[in-house]
C-alpha cells in the first residue's frame, strides 16, 4: 500500500485520424505507439471512455500481452490510466504475459468488465516490428463493431486523458499490490497472476487429461513436436503438455517468449514455421503443431510433414467432435466458419444435420452466436479454430482436440484426414496473399471487380480454361445479417460462385499495420474418390487463371505474384 495518495492528472492531448481498430484491434509499427506523443495514451483513453462510467467505476479488467517489444512499458501506462479512469482492479499475467485465449478465459471466469490484449498477432515484433492493442468485452471476445466504431469516433475528438503517472507496478511478483489514490475512497488493486493456471483448469474440464497422458507418455506413446515460435504459448506448452501430460521436454521447441520472436515471423504456416515442417518430414514425429505470437492460431502436421489445411482441420474436429468429453456433456449447438474458409465444414454439417453459419472474417461474429447458445465449434482458414468455452480462437485447444481424436481413433493424422475425404469429399483450397500493396490501387481494383460481377450479364457467364468450363451461378459482395440481433455487416468480400460449388473470393484485409493486403481464395469441391489425392495447386490452377484474368491483380498492384501462398 502506498503511504501518500497518488495524484490523478487530466492532461490535454490532440486526436489522431488513424486510430480505427480492425478485426484484431489497432495495429501499427511499434515506433508509432512508442514515439508519437500520446498516441498510446489516446487510444487507451478511448477504450475506457467507451465503457459507461457507471459500469467502469470499481470494475475489474484483465491485461495481458504476447511479450513482444514495448509490452511491459505499455502495460505500465494502461495500469496508470485504468486507475485514473475509475477501474478498481486490474488482473495481469506475470511479466505481462498472457495468451489471447487465456485472457478471454480469465475475463469470463472472474466476470471482468473486459480486457486489453497487447499483441499484433502473427506479425513480427521488435523495435522495427509491429505492436497492437485489442479490447475484449465482458463476454471475453473481441469488441463488436458498434464498440470499435465508438472507440474510433472518440479517437477523432479526444481532448484529454486521465492518468496516475506516479503509479508503478511490479509485474514480476505474483500477488496483490494496492495503491491509494487522491479523492478515491477505495484503494486501487493490481493482481499479478500465473498466466497459465486458470486457463489450464478450463482445459482440464474440457479434455480427458488421463487419456491424453497415456497417449503422450505411456508405453508405445506417440512422438510429438510443438513449436511455440518464441511467442506467448511457450509457457503453456511446457506446463500443460510437458509437465502435466508427460510429453518429453525436448518435444517442445522455441518455448521462451522473446520480444522479437527470435527474429522470426510468428505465423504458423508452412513458410514461417518451416523449421517444424522440415523436422516433421523426417518421419520421427507422429504429430506436430505450431502456434502464433499470441497463441490463438495453430498449424497441424502429421508424420512425414503431412499438412492439414485449416479449413479441413475444423471439419475433422466437427466430424469427430464427441471424441472430446466437453461436447459429450454439452451437446452440439451449431457449427460456423468465416465466408472465405472452404466449405469442408458445410459437408459435415449437412451429413450430421447440425446448423451451419457462414459469417464475415472476425471472431466477434462467432462470439455473438455463442452468447446466444447457437454455436459450439467454429474456424477460419487463417489457422484459427475454437469452441464456445471462451470467445477467442485457441491454438493449444485445437492441438489438444486433435490429440484427443488420435487417442480415440488410434490412427495417424494422415489416415484420419484421408478417411474424412473419402466420407465427405474434399475441398481443394488455397489462399494467395498480396501484402503491403498500395491502398489506392487495391481499393480501385476491388471497386472495378465489384462493378464487373454486379452486372446482370455476369451471372451465367462461362469461363473456359483448357478443356474445363466454369459457369457462374452467383456473384456478390458478401453481407451478413446477424441472426441474433439483426446487425448487418456489408462489404465483406467479393464472391464468385460457380455451378458445382467452386468459389473465387477477393477480400481486402483490415488487420495489417501498414499498406493493404489483398487476399485471393480459391475453393473447389471434389467428391470423385479417384480424384481426392491430387496436388491442390495443380487442381486449382484453372480457377487461379480465371481469378487473375478477372482481377488483373498483378498489373493493378505491380506485383509479379503473391507474397504468401497457403
Automatic annotation (TrEMBL):
One of its GO terms (molecular function) is phosphoglucomutase activity. The keyword ATP-binding does not apply. Pfam families: PGM1_C_vert_fung, PGM_PMM_I, PGM_PMM_II, PGM_PMM_III. PROSITE patterns: PGM_PMM. Residues 19-159, 198-303, 311-424 form the Alpha-D-phosphohexomutase alpha/beta/alpha domain. Keywords: Cytoplasm, Magnesium, Metal-binding, Phosphoprotein. It is found in: Cytoplasm. One of its GO terms (cellular component) is cytosol. PANTHER family: PHOSPHOGLUCOMUTASE-1, PHOSPHOHEXOMUTASE FAMILY MEMBER. This is Phosphoglucomutase 1. It comes from Sinocyclocheilus grahami (Dianchi golden-line fish). The lineage of its organism: Eukaryota, Metazoa, Chordata, Craniata, Vertebrata. The gene is LOC107559363.
